[in-house]
Amino acid sequence: MPNDSSMNKSSIIEENELHSQTQAIITRLLQDSLETLSLEEHLEGALLLILSVPWMSLENKGSIHLYKEQSDDMILVAEQNLPETFREKCLRTPLKESLCYKTVLSREMLYSKHHDTKHNYIFEEMENHGHYCIPISLR
Fold this sequence. Notes:
Elements: H1 4-33, H2 39-52, E1 62-68, E2 73-80, H3 84-90, E3 92-94, H4 101-106, E4 110-112, E5 131-133
Antiparallel strand pairs: 1-2, 2-3, 4-5
Helix pairs in contact: 1-2
């Protein structure tokens, strides 16, 4: 039976590994930001990096949407392994119909654990999934 000391060492090692993974991702994101790429290419790369972190992603799929103030839409700019139906439906979404609406207004992160009343678009082959809506402002 493990004693408290070995359990404590194990949790410290795990925590250090998580910090090391996080630091490596942040370093890579900062290095990549120095590359001469379009915003969409930067976001595609960032999404791939985020999805590569074992504790950040249960599935290797996700997307990044940007708010276009001129049209008041959320635009799909980066995605990984999303079903075609989702890509078609969510390529351009009126802000007020998107899950990100509250995030844009409040400028606070929103987490939705599964299909709930916050989802406006639900289609037949949609699997249960969650969302992190994180506002990033250039102003």
